[in-house]
Fold these 3 entries.
Entry 1:
Amino acid sequence: QGQLVESGGGLVQPGGSLRLSCAVSGRFVSWNDMGWYRQAPGKQRELVAAIPTIGTPTYADSVKGRFTISRDNAKNTVNLQMNSLKPEDTAVYYCNFRTVPINWGQGTQVTVSS
């Protein structure tokens, strides 16, 4: 059914930037609506950004204007550029298919702290 491998997380100071990448196998990202999600300690997983096959991406209000989701069809990856990071962005970040999700990957930890 495919596999998702997230990377690019790390420790960054408030106001900093990170670029996350999700390598997808088993399905083409170009044929599917994709999403980036995050789960902070003690909280439910939430959708932060989604990119449809046709149309414009959408974002959670909390990240609008700071995060940008994109897909690289040649590499079969989905990326998340995160700018102006805040401590409340600290979470494990995951990607998945929007319509028919598959098993979650390990995620990538993002920690925003001074």
Note: The chain has no helices and ten strands.
Entry 2:
Amino acid sequence: QVQLVESGGGLVQPGGSLRLSCATSGIHFSINRMGWYRQAPGKEREFAASITSSGSTNYADSVKGRFTVSRDNAWKLVYLQMSDLKPEDTAVYYCRLLSMNARQYWGKGTLVTVSS
């Protein structure tokens, strides 16, 4: 059974940094890419960042230059390093996995609150 478990969320002041982690288990297939999405209160879930099996990364314009996505070689851990955080980054952050045969899996999310 595939499991994605996010951690690392919390309360941070504007301008601060956080690192989110997504721990995976139960994966016995090839991964196309993994990514981070976020959902702010009252808004739809949106893409934030992703990383492919070849290591290519992609970012939403709103986080480009401030967020960095990375992973270990075995896809056991995927990270989202967030810096220069802004109140509008407040959201539940979800980890998503896309397999080579186009199946997707989601974690339950971790809350990031940016406030003074």
Note: The chain is about 0% helix and 55% strand.
Entry 3:
Amino acid sequence: QVQLVESGGGLVQAGDSLRLSCAASGFTFSSYDMGWFRQAPGKEREFVAAISTYYANFVKGRFTNSRDNAKNTVYLTITRLRPEATAVYYCAARPRAATGYDYWGQGTQVTVSS
């Protein structure tokens, strides 16, 4: 059974840092690229980061996507959080060289207060 379980979200203040985790199981983690998406209230889900080199324009160097294959876990580290970062953050997995994501997590809420 494939599972992606995000954690690490919560209520933080503007300017704080946060590290989200996504624990994967049920598939060959090392054969998949991992990405992050987010959905803010009233908005569509949007791309945040993929692999370790592709980031949305709004990231501006404040987000880092990394992974630990030994732990089957991917991380999204966010620094200098802004209130507009408030959203549910999702991790997703896609086979290497594929364009679509096969697996999605349930999301973790990040709320940034000003």
Note: The chain has a mean pLDDT of 95.
